[in-house]
Amino acid sequence: MGTWLRKEFSSAADLFEEAGDLLGYDLATLCEEGPAEKLNQTIHSQPALFVVGMAAATVFSAEQPDAVDQVTAVAGLSLGEYTAVCFAGGLGFADALRVVDARGQAMQACADAVASGMASVLGLDLETLTEVCGEVRGDGEVLQPANLLCPGNIAVSGHSAALAKLEPAATAAGAMKVVPLSVAGAFHTPLMQDAVSRLKDVLASAHLQDTRLPVFSNVDAKPHTRADEIRDLLAQQVVAPVQWEASIRSMMASGVERFVECGTGRVLRGTLKRIARKMPADGFGDETA
User: Fold this and answer.
1) Taking phi first (over 0 means left), then psi (-120 to 50 degrees means alpha), and beta for anything else, what does residue 264 get?
2) Torsion angles phi and psi, residue 223, rounded to 5
3) 149 — phi, psi (to 5°)?
4) Mind telling me the catalytic residues?
5) Burial of 68 (0-12, 13-18, 19+ CB in 10 A)
6) Phi then psi for 23, rounded to 5 degrees?
7) What is the mean pLDDT of the chain?
8) CA angle, residues 206, 210, 6, in degrees to nearest 5
9) Whose CB has fewer CB within 10 Å in the chain, the N or C terminal residue?
10) Residues 6+ away with beta carbon under 8 Å from 140
11) Which of 244, 287, 282, 245 is nearest to 264 (CA)?
12) CB-based contacts of 203: which residues, under 8 Å, 6+ apart?
């Protein structure tokens, strides 16, 4: 993850080196060599995803300045929102990484406190999936839609016991597939509530300023530039469902006519195919992008 960027562009390598110094471990080697189970731990995956995203955005800015000049808005999925805020000038790299590192540790602590997780459900609409979650969760259990990605692709989060009952009920309701996700816990649910206060403290101490571009928030799918609003929304984000489809639609309604995905993977381009198939989208960050 991020190896091509780091090996081909000195600016990306410099970010990984700076990140390693700030974090106290060799992030570049972890991203390149793993082991996967260590990289998948949220205390490592969150800094890794942020640094890879910023490395891609930094190289993209240098390699395609004319395209960057045309950027009118930014957004990021869950952790990716920190990359968006940083790119838009709200946070400096070091401050953003410090917040992301604290976020990962706080969310890992919540995940360690209770057996929980996430699963992707394909083929159900939000209303039906919400009903299924209500049917299978027991008293005191959490199970709810958490990542509203695109039509027919919604991730749910909750207690492991409730997740264990999800697949047969979702299949009976018409789901095509239920795929467990390799994450530490039930992100974007009340099970992450203890992380909010820790995140608020770190965000309060970070130098967060008004952004030069509107950042479409995961929480309300609306554009924000004011530092105080962004700070509050980033804290809420860990317990609120990610409104990704709504954010994309809001961006298009605001006049966005093309998307560029900076970072590893193809989540943006994949979800766009289900939201607005004809919307142009490019990728920058993977060697094959």
Assistant:
1) beta
2) -80, 140
3) -80, -55
4) 78, 188
5) middle
6) -85, -25
7) 95
8) 65
9) C
10) none
11) 287
12) 99, 231, 234, 235
pLDDT for 284: 87
What number is the average pLDDT over the span 12-35? Answer: 96
For the record, the structure tokens of 286 come out as: 């993977």
How far apart CA 164 and CA 48 sit, in angstroms, is 29
- Write the pLDDT tens digit of every residue in 231-247: 999 999 999 999 999 99
Strands 153-159 and 116-122, how do they pair? Answer: antiparallel
Residue 68 token pair:
């960057």
Q: Please state at what angle helix 244-253 crosses helix 267-275, rounded to 10 degrees.
A: 70
Neighbours of 190 (CB within 10 A): 15
Give residue 287's pLDDT: 66
Question: What are the structure tokens assigned to 53, written together?
Answer: 């995203």
Taking CA atoms, 19 is separated from 26, 47, 65, 154, in Å, by: 8, 8, 24, 32
User: Residue 156: beta bridge partners?
Assistant: 119, 145
Confidence of residue 40 (pLDDT cuts 50, 70, 90): confident
pTM: 0.95
Confidence check: pLDDT of 289 > 70: no
Rounded Cα gap, residues 154 and 146, in angstroms? 7
Is residue 159 within 8 A of residue 88, CB to CB? The reply is no
- As a whole number, mean pLDDT of residues 186-207 equals 97
